């Protein structure tokens, strides 16, 4: 595992360092990318191609794992493993949806001449949409994880207690696993907030 992670970092640093080693458009401005100035168009195509190959390999691997897990020969695979696999698949799908428009814009940048593709002037919106992937991932993990839903509910209940001037001793409780659920507060702790109490005392 350490070797695999180290190899990933070495490849990433090597690809990122190619412009500094000479693969750039300095001295030949007509070859510069419109969206990413100072980067050569052929370098942008190379990076997108490498990333597409890696992403395609990851999708193929996860698809194979999912098929094996769903097959009749995988009775030993528990329901929790399938849930985790589905969560990772959703995260991967969200990544593709968010970043695909940006990759398309980069390929158009390499194929189109200057002022030939007006959509390139709006490239910042596509990259802004791509960065939303970082905000989507926590939501996916929260919606798919029973423990995280329970922990967020506990925090919301504790914020409600602090807002009412109550002590926050229940807020210091550690996250419990789904196999041993524990409500964030007892029903007699919040007599003035029956809706919040019912929500806190009910497992997600």
Structure write-up:
By secondary structure, the protein is mainly alpha-helical. It has two domains: 20-144, Rhopdopsin 7-helix transmembrane proteins (Up-down Bundle), CATH 1.20.1070; 146-201, no CATH class. The protein has seven helices and no strands. The longest helix has 33 residues, at 79-111. The chain starts with a helix and ends with a helix. Residues 177-204 have low confidence and may be disordered. It is found in: Cell membrane. InterPro entries: GPCR_Rhodpsn (IPR000276), GPCR_Rhodpsn_7TM (IPR017452), S1P_rcpt (IPR004061). GO terms for molecular function: sphingosine-1-phosphate receptor activity. Keywords: Cell membrane, Disulfide bond, G-protein coupled receptor, Glycoprotein, Membrane, Receptor, Signal, Transducer, Transmembrane, Transmembrane helix.
**Structural class by secondary-structure content:** mainly alpha
DSSP strand content: under 5%
What is the terminal-to-terminal distance? 35 Å
CATH C-level category of the largest domain: Mainly Alpha
- For the report, how would you describe the main beta sheet? none
CATH architecture of the largest domain: Up-down Bundle
How many strand elements?
Answer: 0
Rounded average pLDDT: 76
GO molecular function, one term: sphingosine-1-phosphate receptor activity
Domain G-protein coupled receptors family 1 profile: 1-141
GO cellular component, one term: plasma membrane
Pfam families: 7tm_1
